[in-house]
Hints:
Layout: H1 17-20, H2 26-30, H3 39-58, H4 65-72, H5 79-98, E1 102-110, E2 119-127, E3 131-137, H6 151-164, E4 172-178, E5 187-192, H7 193-212, H8 221-224, H9 234-242, H10 256-265, H11 269-285, H12 307-316, H13 332-339, H14 341-348
Parallel strand pairs: 3-4
Antiparallel strand pairs: 1-2, 2-3, 4-5
Amino acid sequence: MPEHENRAHALLSASGSHRWMACTPSARLEECCENRTSDAAKEGTLAHELCEIKVAILRGEEVNESDYEKLLNDPMYTEEMGVCTNNYAEFCVETAKEENGLPIIEVELDLTAYIPEGFGTVDCVIVSEKTLHIIDFKYGQGVDVSPVENSQLMIYALGAYDLYSSFYDFENVKLTIVQPRLSAEPKTWECSIQDLLDFGERLKPVAALAFKGGGEFAPSEHTCLFCKAKYTCRARADKNLSTMFLQEKDPYTLSNDEIGEILAKVADFPKWIKDLEDYALEQLLAGNEIKGYKAVEGRSSRVWSDEKKAFETIIKDGTEEKDLYETVPLSLAKIEKLLGKKKFASLVGGYVTKSQGKPTLTLSSDIRPSIQDVKSMFTEEGEN
């Protein structure tokens, strides 16, 4: 089992397709940027390696016990990660049984028919008589990923179709995102094989343009989010700075249309400023100069150097041990993880209600349904 973090990555990766398909020059711009690692990325790598080995175990395959123990003893491993990866493995195996298919894990795909020098590895493919099912595991909880027309999964599906279509007469494609830290249930979207192949034809010229570094930059909150060049990209800076000089219309008030236009333009502004601050601090700590700025030590906080001995000393002095601790109930989500979803549902599911979400402002492109009439959300008894 090759270590995930040591795998090669294509210039036009499937995971970055949402970016380079919209902002075609970004892929070549990223080539000049150093690779950054984060704890979140390392957690994701560990979780994916656990997913791979747990699916193999559930399928009755022999696994290297020392490799498995090494993953379980990793400092980043948590009980939550264990539950999430168990859920993923169980979903893959159970879904394969339901579809009379076989869960094939960590499938290496040749994507060169659509993307220059394209290749990638999909977490799980289930092939059955009529259905090609792509399953992708997301451990992150910062961005809720939708499978609907998800370019990463559709690219994987194209590669899997080329790999298996000579053995199976596929008619439809299922794309599933398993993101247990954000969604209790996996999310699935389905399309026809023809829809997938049509996407492949649209993909080819875009990928060819991106590979050359051509096209126009299209900075946005969405495309810049995970771009390695987002800190120093001039197109992003120009876009955000241009919002500071809005054309004046009515000298006294803004219309609703103008407010919507302004909010859309500045959506990325706070993130851009934060990215610049992070990059500037990183440069200063590396010994480079940022004009007008310096790095200083922030506010510190007191911590125990040896909590156990400190508590023993306090108790010996006469304070009761119970007075040194607080007892609080676990959250609903933590109790569900403790019991397991099935036991939780059967045991206390009847005591669970779901509160109505607070109205939230978002872009029109958000897939969530619009609240047509806010007033209808409040009953007479609930008005305040």
